[in-house]
Design goal:
By secondary structure, the chain is mostly beta strands. The chain has three helices and 15 strands. A hairpin with a 4-residue loop joins strand 1 and strand 2. The radius of gyration is 20 Å and the shape is globular.
Length: about 220
């Protein structure tokens, strides 16, 4: 989810753009990334108390490339490529407002990266598929064109979404928890990860363990 805001002094109005990312079901039992943008406004003209924000506009991306009538070779190739990217399950979907990243589950264990386009209709364009977590993805966060993902095997990777390269930082560092439960049992329940320019912090909700990594890209 991503939120941006603007204001107008003439009518004392505040406007927000709320971006929601998720996956849309595709027949018979698959999923594709999608996005919706909501415009919320709150105005108080001559009133001391601001009114409750209201949704004043919305738009959403298309889940599948659709073509009516005659289909060109390029359109057919695009439709076939998009259909081939559908996955059986998705564990996590994250965005920073520029990129959307979907972590596929159930044996796929890849990260699908899409670019968001706002001019005209809201649109997603496929960028690349990232591979590097053979055991699955336990947690993920996206910010400022970077993605931090933690594998169920304890490996932590920092991805440059524009370029597609990654740096493996280190494995899980809570050695007491590792000895008690085993590494896979620990990371399987991991639910939260956050990062800034120097550190990554991840929390296992099942055990309360906190892992801290330092990195410098």
């Amino acid at each position: 989810m991503s939120l941006s805001s603007s204001s107008s002094a003439e009518v004392d109005e505040e406007t927000w753009k709320l971006l929601l990312v998720y996956c849309t079901p595709v027949y018979p039992s698959h999923w594709l990334p999608s996005a919706s943008e909501l415009t919320l406004s709150r105005a108080s003209i001559g009133r001391p108390n601001r009114s409750t924000p209201a949704i004043t506009g919305s738009r959403k991306s298309k889940s599948l490339v659709a073509a009516n009538g005659w289909v060109s070779d390029d359109q057919r190739a695009e439709m076939e490529a998009e259909w081939a990217r559908k996955v059986g399950s998705v564990d996590v979907v994250e965005t920073d407002g520029k990129f959307l990243v979907a972590a596929a589950g159930k044996g796929d264990n890849t990260l699908q990266v899409y670019r968001l386009h706002y001019r005209g209709e809201l649109r997603l364009s496929y960028l690349r598929t990232l591979e590097g977590h053979p055991g699955g993805i336990a947690a993920m966060k996206v910010a400022d064109g970077r993605c931090v993902s933690v594998g169920r095997d304890g490996a932590l990777k920092v991805w440059d979404l524009e370029a597609g390269w990654d740096v493996e930082v280190d494995s899980w560092r809570d050695y007491s928890a590792r000895e008690e439960e085993g590494l896979e049992g620990l990371t399987r329940k991991m639910a939260d990860v956050a990062f800034d320019e120097r550190r990554v912090v991840s929390v296992d909700r099942g055990t309360g363990s906190v892992g801290i990594w330092r990195f410098d890209l």
